[in-house]
Amino acid sequence: MRFDEAYSGNIFIGSQQNFEEAEVVLYGMPMDWTVSYRPGSRFGPTRIREVSIGLEEYSAYLDRELHEVSVYDAGDIPLPFGNAPKSLDVIEAYVDEILGHGKMPLGIGGEHLVSWPVMKAVAKKYPDLAIIHMDAHTDLRVDYEGEPLSHSTPIRKIAEHIGPKNVYSFGIRSGMKEEFKWAKENGMHISKFEVLEPLKEILPTLAGRPVYVTIDIDVLDPAHAPGTGTVDCGGITSRELLASIHAISRSDVQVVGADLVEVAPIYDASEQTANTASKLIREMILGYTMTTKK
């Protein structure tokens, strides 16, 4: 991997091109090879960066500015089109290297399967890892129509890898009955429908632990984020999602990595979804680096 070459495309607002000095490495995972409904999330990382120019670098929520955090935008990982197994291997190796340099990885998807190799890489460095997962869907399937590499499987994969009791899902409103049963029988935490209040109850139990946060944009109601591959009505508001990010930022957990996935710009002519995602990423950068300084 080469992190010493400047990315020639659009970069996320407030990023600088000095890898060595960076606390956070922002990178894109433009993959949607396994989606079962609407493709297009491979275009999410680029568009999120492009619309970020409309953001202020200051967060009124956290009273911090992006210049207070050293962020290196590494661009998109070059992935072999249509080849899911190789793409996942490339992503894992890429994140291994980021972690090896002592940086926090912050990924932009892409479909949710891209989170699996990232979480696996982070778990190698942090054996006591806990996962905070915000999503409309359980993502606990073993396979989708016989295919184990599917965007409906990443949380099942990481739960089996680090233990179901270390995985905490919030905002879930869709999934097979068997998925909910498996979670209950194996001690995995699932909060249906809501995020903020159950998250606040769980965070004190994770104090001091390394935490990886994965957010599927479809945890939001389609009224707030129509540009995604698998829309599902009944979701939370963007205000609640922002408040949830801030609750993690102000807690005693140590965020060691994060991602935001499943933005598919083609389904949102208003660009509301990409703009929302861009603001969420700004708050993740500013907030999650606060947890590493405690």
From TrEMBL:
Annotated catalysed reactions: agmatine + H2O = urea + putrescine
Domain of life of the native organism: Bacteria
Family indicated by similarity: Belongs to the arginase family. Agmatinase subfamily.
Organism: Mangrovibacillus cuniculi
Keywords carried by this UniProt record: Hydrolase, Manganese, Metal-binding, Polyamine biosynthesis, Putrescine biosynthesis, Spermidine biosynthesis
EC number of the protein: 3.5.3.11
MF terms in GO: agmatinase activity; metal ion binding
Gene name as annotated: speB
GO terms, biological process: putrescine biosynthetic process from arginine, via agmatine; spermidine biosynthetic process
Function statement: Catalyzes the formation of putrescine from agmatine.
Top-level EC class as recorded in UniProt: hydrolase
Protein's name in the database: Agmatinase
PROSITE patterns documented for this protein: ARGINASE_1, ARGINASE_2
Residues where Mn(2+) binds: H112, D135, H137, D139, D216, D218
Pathway: Amine and polyamine biosynthesis; putrescine biosynthesis via agmatine pathway; putrescine from agmatine: step 1/1
